[in-house]
């Protein structure tokens, strides 16, 4: 794919360009290495755009590799979803999909190499004892009493661990580095743990599984990755990343570069907490349109181009820029849909209007542009009949002076049609308005009425030809900017009880042909997308992607 705009410079792109021009690197190879223990979210989108985009812009290649070192938390469904998300965003990985588990044999051989070089040992300390011996940020650790086992004993114990002779937690393999290091990651980190779990790629072959730190850099080296680009929380792990590369006979030595992760307000990007929302059925799965997952945003109606544009807007830096305003994301999607979404009329809260001076069998069909600025979109046929629906919000019985929509004795224009005047209000026994009786000024089609000014224009749908729709109005899932900031308050306490509202709406006839993921601007209402999973020709379901108001554009104008 080709990006829509010239990418803005950033420190990583500049650094890689200088290395290529200086001859240190001939061809850049990056990788996107998710753990298959959940769905990808908007933070991953930033990493995807960076890694794939950088390789594309520099004439290199980007691998998709699953760092699958913990089979207890991994599933094939996550692997399939991640591949689909990357492809949907518009990127293609080089070669076949890779798995860290492809390298388990080599990693085991390298673990044996470290033992022979007196750089690793099997430890019998319990997990609690290992934490106690490791020390603190201000106090050095203490060596394990098993640290000086012979290479022969360690090799034998490691092999028996591999064969499943020991229980989980009974033994681990640790690197022998420096228990007094100020960097706790270098205080004899764990290389292998015993796990009696079947693996989605290797089956029951292994009873031990390598740690992420031991797997990650060596997998990069095997694949010829030149630049391991990751977020800043891995900066303290870089000395360990380099220690492994320097003490093992790896074929290449990639470089690790860190950048600031994305923190979006009113949003969680912790996989553990997102999984909790799914497991406790607070949301309808990982792709619930309220979720910050890529699949959730896709289902809500976001476009790949808009997400890529957003990632370009926020940029790539080493400095933690704090919270990014979610209005930037909605601005990116709104801008894309403004240019590319066809128009339609839909009444979310129907209120019947009877046009009293229109005959019972009257049917007048207007040909209306699919998009006001796009000649390439087909026109819509919008029928006017004696009875139409308008939105309840477009009528007020006791309207203030600046209410320019419908009220008793006041006029308004039906969009693309005539000016009408409200002559009578019909109510039920409870005093609720159930119907309006209005008259049509037939001399106002395409022109203003003589001698009077009508400021209001409202949308409408024919009662006879309207299509019933289920419309889901989504809002932020959380009511506070940082729902997990206060460690003394459960983040679930900040859930927005009005994050989903369902309307039984009526849409114009053209919407009957809307297929899954079809996007529209419902005029005067917002942008909507036909739900890719539950919408059918017999039961059309539309999700609100974003409203029409663009707060971020106003912020930019003020700036």
Give an account of the 3D structure:
- With 559 residues, this protein is an alpha/beta fold.
- Helices cover 26% and strands 22% of the residues.
- It has 13 helices and 25 strands.
- It has helices at 11-21, 42-57, 76-88, 104-116, 127-134, 151-162, 212-223, 238-247, 271-279, 294-300, 304-314, 326-340, 551-558, and strands at residues 29-32, 61-66, 98-99, 120-123, 172-175, 190-194, 208-210, 227-231, 255-259, 343-344, 346-347, 350-355, 363-368, 380-385, 387-391, 411-414, 419-427, 433-441, 457-458, 461-462, 467-474, 500-507, 519-522, 526-530, 540-547.
- The strands form six sheets. The protein has a seven-stranded mixed β-sheet.
- Helix 3 (76-88) links the parallel strand 2 and strand 3 (98-99).
- The mean pLDDT is 95.
Nutshell version of this structure?
By secondary structure, this protein is an alpha/beta fold. It contains 13 helices and 25 strands.
For the secondary structure, the number of strands is: 25
Return Rg in Å.
30 Å
Structural class: alpha/beta
Taking the sheet with the most strands, its summary is: 7 strands, mixed
Pfam family, one: tRNA-synt_1c
Catalytic activity: tRNA(Gln) + L-glutamine + ATP = L-glutaminyl-tRNA(Gln) + AMP + diphosphate
Protein name: Glutamine--tRNA ligase
Family: Belongs to the class-I aminoacyl-tRNA synthetase family.
Layout of secondary structure:
Blueprint: H1 11-21, E1 29-32, H2 42-57, E2 61-66, H3 76-88, E3 98-99, H4 104-116, E4 120-123, H5 127-134, H6 151-162, E5 172-175, E6 190-194, E7 208-210, H7 212-223, E8 227-231, H8 238-247, E9 255-259, H9 271-279, H10 294-300, H11 304-314, H12 326-340, E10 343-344, E11 346-347, E12 350-355, E13 363-368, E14 380-385, E15 387-391, E16 411-414, E17 419-427, E18 433-441, E19 457-458, E20 461-462, E21 467-474, E22 500-507, E23 519-522, E24 526-530, E25 540-547, H13 551-558
Parallel strand pairs: 1-2, 2-3, 8-9, 10-23, 12-18, 16-19, 21-25
Antiparallel strand pairs: 4-5, 5-6, 6-7, 11-22, 12-15, 13-14, 15-20, 16-17, 17-18, 21-22, 23-24, 24-25
Helix pairs in contact: 2-11, 7-8, 11-12
Motif ('HIGH' region): 34-44
Subunit structure: Monomer.
Catalytic activity: tRNA(Gln) + L-glutamine + ATP = L-glutaminyl-tRNA(Gln) + AMP + diphosphate
